[in-house]
Amino acid sequence: MKFSIFSIARNAMSYHENWQAHWRNPEPKSEYEVIIIGGGGHGLATAYYLAKECGVRSIAVLERNRIGGGNSCRNTTIVRSNYLWDEAANLFEKSMQLWEGLSQDINYNVMFSQRGVLNLCHTLQDMRDAARRVNANRLNGIDALLLDAQQVKALEPLIDISPSARYPIVGATFQPRGGNARHDGVAWGFARAADSRGVDIIQNCEVTGIRIENGMVIGVDTSRGFIKGKKVGMVAAGHSGVVAAMAGLRLPVESHPLQALVSEPLKPCINTVVMSNAVHGYISQSDKGDLVIGAGIDQYCGYGQRGSYNVIEGTLSPIVELFPSLSRVRMNRQWGGIVDVTPDACPIVGTTPVKNLFINCGWGTGGFKATPGSGWVFAHTIAKGEPHPLAAPFALDRHISGALIDEHGASAVAH
Ligand SMILES: Cc1cc2nc3c(=O)[nH]c(=O)nc-3n(C[C@H](O)[C@H](O)[C@H](O)COP(=O)(O)OP(=O)(O)OC[C@H]3O[C@@H](n4cnc5c(N)ncnc54)[C@H](O)[C@@H]3O)c2cc1C
Asked: Whole-model pTM?
């Protein structure tokens, strides 16, 4: 089934009651060439690119819950590629390029909106750091501008740039190609596109064990029985530590709650995505009109998909300082996800000490923007059995060698 103006018109004639299901609901087979653990955006994108780019014919995505029930559909949907270090900038820029053609590629409108991302500066030192990042971005061919306070005001008329503000705005970085996308559309779109290439998406199928023989993975135990797999990819985000432990691996990853909240719908009033590293808040407006607001992580480790009230308060007070006219807006919903945070705020993508067992995790607070890029490099890594060149710097053993890529500054979320 292809989405087009004609299929919409045809289905309108039958009151949209005859649309085909977006993906099948197959029973698990006894064996697959590749098994992906985790049906979030990254797992689904991996399966899609494995089928499309690498010609793998027998793939299963095993999801313990429903697809997109994890962080994929709990995030604040910010997409950008303006990371400081070459390794991260190259990886996130690959993802940005895939975003730019994604709706056409998967024939699903992911509502990718390049409205621009502002990272605010509140001090002279913020400005110096921003100038360094903008220069580094440009050297990597990434669009990046350094703005003064007046230019920020021109983009966001509601923002308070008065010098007497509690967090005075002295400038910002701006990535015009950044923006946001509809997160559940991304999960559904990849699921549908993967399914149409023969990938079995198996929901309500929890992986409970990873079987290894002679140092090589041979399959996984699940709540629906043992499934043989020649290769297994772990893409479990906040539960990566739990899944990797099934293979006897201890990851340098902490799982923390990260919260977000949305307001009642308003008429268009925020034009871009506005982030402030210093005050730990970010805000954009969805196409529906809701203000979408995100925070820094809750400092404790845990798996409950909720967070503490003090973080909400600590986020909303600076947002109101930045946008005083929003002070009377009512918040509608609040939720949390579990993010997998590494010591250098960069992902882990690559091989593991177990043969044919691969890992993709540690995207922490910033993996939504990487969804297509992560799937792309992980698919190639699994298919070839060696890291894709863009993923090579993000190997698990960098935490032993010390070759860390510190992106805490550009991650723009308090850790
Ligand atoms: C509140 C919040 C705001 C965020 N904002 C942004 C943002 O603005 N921009 C950005 O780039 N990133 C953001 N992120 C981060 C981003 O959402 C994640 O990095 C990214 O979605 C991780 O993708 P995923 O598909 O791997 O995760 P998930 O969607 O969590 O997928 C992992 C899946 O694995 C499944 N699973 C776990 N254990 C098992 C098992 N044993 N068996 C089978 N399946 C299992 C889970 O059920 C889950 O569905 C945010 C995160 C949160 C929580």
From this structure: 0.97
